[in-house]
Amino acid sequence: MKIFLSWSGKLSQEVARALRAWIPTVLTNVEAWFSSEDIPKGSRWALELAERLEEANYGIAILVPGNVNQPWLNFELGAISKSLSTSRISPFLFDLEPSELSGGPIAQFQATTFQKDDVWRLVLSMNEFSGSDRLNSDSLRISFDLHWPKLEERLKTLLPERQYYDQKSFTEHMVLRNYVKLHHAESPDLSHAHGVRTADPDATNEDAWYAGSEIPCPVHIVYGPYESLPAPGLYWAVFKVKIDSNSNPEATLHLDVISNKNPSLNSSRIIRGTHFDEAMEYQLFGIKFKYQNEVDVEYRVIKLFQHRNLWIDFIAIIRD
Asked: 164-319 has which fold?
């Protein structure tokens, strides 16, 4: 079976590139293709694209904020959907919710969100559509579970490339004046898988949670408290952290907000060493999320790069 990955814009292109590399590792019976990667140099570009669209049995549209109504993306999907009896289309939503497709032409198709269970359903759909080349579902699940972490890690590194997180700047005075929840990292409110409580005159209460370079990575540093918030709506989780060096571009921290009961709440961010303005200076990083009366909201700091020392002062929750 041949899968056509349709994209529009840099972020969408990078997601498509990651899926193109990953899908055949799980579904060995398919060929995944997208234009920026597979058109040979010197080929007649429009003719090559038309041939690929004609051959495709399955189309995946990579949708990100800002590209849902792009004409070229809709043209490619229209070409694939000409014969729905022999082809299928699935929008892949990267940091979008299905409700954001309302009213557009792509809304008629069943969308996949960037969540493990949803991507598994997409893999099952592609496998079922491959006819006589269909793989055994039990073996497929084993392969999916084995390869999922690589895709998840790759796609999460793309999130900071968006300006979504830079649309709101925070000052400590503003955060401490307006928070609805405040959790000091060393307090019993949060759980601690690794690291130690340490005195730190730079922290708001002169205590912080410290994780040194001796800790093998990746590991959870703090997580919890599995709480509810005052009312439904948009919130920011603001993490106050510092690092011993800001010269390394490697992914250093994974910050997220999650709910086991409502995956649509989940939001995350990768922090690299170079995202810190200064070494040994606390900095605030915010993650926006939508709360809908969940009772198990959890905030997590996951250390990704071993050879760094880091300190966590607090996690504050404020209304948008």
From this structure: Jelly Rolls (2.60.120)
